[in-house]
Amino acid sequence: MPIRADQLPARLERGLQRLYTVFGDEPLQAQEAGDAIRAAARAAGFAERKVFNVSGAHFDWSAVIGAAQEMSLFADRQLIEIRIPSGKPGKDGSDALQRYCSLVADEVLTLVQLPRLDGSQLKSAWFAALESAGIAVRVEPVERKALPVWLAQRLARQGQRVQAGDAGAQTLAFFADRVEGNLLAAQQEMSKLGLLYPAGELSFEQVEAAVLNVARYDVFKLGEAILAGNVARALRMLDGLRAEGEAPVLVHWTLAEDVRALRRVREAVDAGRPLSLALSQARVWGQKEKLFERAVPLLADHHLARWLAAASVCDGLVKGLRHPDWPNDPWDALQRLVLMMLEPLRPLAPAARAGAPVLALQAGQ
Predict the structure, then answer these.
(1) CATH number of the domain encompassing residue 271
(2) pLDDT tens-digit profile of 267-278?
(3) What is the pTM of this model?
């Protein structure tokens, strides 16, 4: 079973395996995992390094197989890196990787680097061979709710910390909002704080003055923010997607998919099916499943009918058609749809559950 990136240092301290597979799309953690493996390999005497970049269907796998078998010319041990940016080695590559895993000698340490893999790739024979030959490291993005803790841990590494209590929580929340979805930039901003200020406690004012807004938003996370009733985050993400040049058509499509899925689940529940079965039949899994479980009971038929009608209007607006009762700008229309969806879901937001005032919505204007 793959381990998390934060578990890798402890595993390296217990001794080196002959093969490591690092896979995932989070650049900072993938880079750090690779660097940690290379550093441990150098410390153990793997002085020579060979790198193979697998590109295209006509890659010569015989060179990789040969490298696993031949003795190093300049050192007793060698590190071999196999980088497969597409995550698809093909039939020849699949056969070669399985053979490689059966042939690699103890004097060779191998690092295989891959992007995020889907379910079929994780069940493939070549990935199973890699995993059984050593350790697989899954690199995953740090979710927004976990980001403040991640930032605090990184600051602690450079001898800095935020204030205790609510003041520190506010500082970390501000920091997280500025760097969400962009851990490489987050690390750069923390390095900047280390250069600007001495070790010790950081104030909110210091962080606010130093940290740039480098957040990068995933269009598919917008729906999660809406389903969580998080008004401020949803609107911030929508503005961020607009500033990043995301296509309004794609944003609308993701929102409309959620609306249709919610309607199917609501109808199934009303027909007497258990919520868990309704979610499964609507193909709602993972984080979305948890959000749907909380959102569906708050939604009545009139909410979903209104959302479907609004999504239909937005579909035309993002494709250049006008509507007399809606803004002509596609992003303004999307904002109106988002606000409309948020209105009945506001009780789900943490601030609302704690009794704090929430942002008033003007979905009908």
Answers:
(1) 1.20.272.10
(2) 999 999 999 999
(3) 0.66
